[in-house]
């Protein structure tokens, strides 16, 4: 989202061309059950429309400009537009069920990792899609965050790097849970990620991968 309209096919193609390991995206259900790719629950911030995604049909979402003439994509279109591995963030259990149908129908267990802020959504997607890799996401958390990940069956934690501590990373690693830091958009945060020995980071600026080799 730092260089292209976020959650659009244009942005995903740019990320793939930049050589990113994984492309992260966000999923919400439209009024008619489509897996719309958008971060917010409403369309106001990233399109020229207004109102909640859940109150709009896919056709109504398609009529919106998501930036530079891009349209709101659905998950299946992203699968076809890029070949990279994907990390799909789901916002609730209903989205988990819709995503599970696609993952099973297209045999995507190896390609798509599923993340969520909601423990129950992580549990649900794992129940519906045996073998799927899952990530529990958190911005604020308490001392039980690693226990929560283990209880939900998540293989990884994605945590706000501004609040991440070495203690949490070491505890997670001791329990066999990987840790991803978000969002790493500066060289200082990249240096911190390396110092903490994180398993990965997310960024809005693909070029940080290239420049970080020399400066971080």
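Q: What amino acid sequence fits the structure above?
A:
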């Amino acid at each position: 989202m730092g260089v292209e309209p976020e959650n659009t096919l244009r942005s995903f193609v740019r990320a793939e061309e930049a050589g990113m390991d994984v492309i992260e995206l966000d999923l919400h259900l439209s009024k008619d059950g489509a897996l719309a790719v958008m971060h917010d629950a409403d369309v106001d911030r990233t399109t020229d429309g207004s109102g909640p995604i859940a109150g709009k049909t896919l056709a109504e979402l398609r009529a919106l400009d998501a930036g530079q003439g891009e349209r709101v994509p659905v998950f299946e279109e992203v699968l076809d537009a890029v070949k990279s591995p994907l990390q799909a963030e789901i916002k609730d259990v209903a989205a988990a069920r819709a995503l599970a149908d696609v993952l099973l129908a297209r045999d995507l267990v190896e390609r798509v990792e599923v993340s969520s802020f909601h423990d129950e959504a992580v549990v649900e997607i794992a129940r519906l899609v045996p073998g799927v890799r899952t990530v529990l996401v958190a911005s604020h958390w308490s001392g039980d965050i690693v226990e929560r990940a283990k209880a939900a069956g998540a293989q990884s934690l994605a945590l706000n790097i501004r609040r991440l501590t070495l203690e949490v990373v070491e505890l997670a690693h001791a329990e066999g849970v990987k840790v991803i830091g978000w969002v790493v958009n500066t060289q200082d945060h990249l240096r911190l990620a390396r110092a903490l020995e994180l398993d990965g980071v997310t960024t809005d600026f693909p070029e940080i991968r290239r420049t970080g080799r020399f400066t971080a």
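Q: And what stands out in the fold?
A: The chain has a mean pLDDT of 96.
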